[in-house]
Amino acid sequence: MVANQRAIEPIVGENTHCPSRFAPSHSDNMISRFGSTSSAGAWNSLLQKSLTIAPHDAYISIRRSDMASKAARAAVPVVHAGLQTFSGEGDRHRLTGTAVKAVLRLISAWGGSNAEGATLLGVSESTWDRMKSGKWDGVLSQDQMTRASALIGVFKGLHLLFADDMADRWPRLVNRGPIFDRRAPIHAMMEGGIPRMLETRQYIDALRGGL
Questions:
Q1: Are 205 and 157 contacting, i.e. CB atoms less than 8 angstroms apart?
Q2: Range of the domain at 35
Q3: Distance (Å, rounded) from C-alpha 186 to C-alpha 180?
Q4: Are residues 203 and 107 in the same domain?
Q5: 36: alpha, beta or left, given left = phi > 0 and alpha = psi -120 to 50?
Q6: Global pTM value
Q7: What CA–CA distance (Å, rounded) separates 171 from 183?
Q8: Which of 3, 4, 9 is nearest to 24 (CA)?
Q9: Are residues 190 and 95 in the same domain?
Q10: Distance (Å, rounded) from C-alpha 207 to C-alpha 166?
């Protein structure tokens, strides 16, 4: 870039720091310096070429640098801080009690049946009954913890979106949203499993964000 700039500077004119004999306004001096009008014509042609090529070379240089930077960034893996996968048994053991209580409360708030609660959490109805009675002392699997997390996110998002009882009635109302296909969200989540639960959570977040 510096070399190209120096090549262009002599033709900029009187506002530059270059010697005046190189300014376009002193064409007579230029012709005299190069011997003839034809030589001056060749000089002007060379200048025009420099004006065309120099910016292009600079553009190519910047583009190559930009592409290299993008490639370097792409090669670095992106790690999301705080991303919870529930893969560790220790974490699941620590969180299971709180997760089960939260899911029991939200299913009750939604007016869900034992069968609906069991299906959403991914457990048998007998296990759900033991959970409700406080006689279950197991540990949720990774799949079940993911379900619980999604359901809790839906519940929390609805209570941030609605200030009245609509927050708890919404899951059972027929919804025309694209991911529900004119079904109640709770039924869509039962049929669609984890993917639909996560989509429902994202859908509610989008409504809250005005998207």
A1: yes
A2: 2-75
A3: 9
A4: yes
A5: beta
A6: 0.60
A7: 10
A8: 9
A9: yes
A10: 14
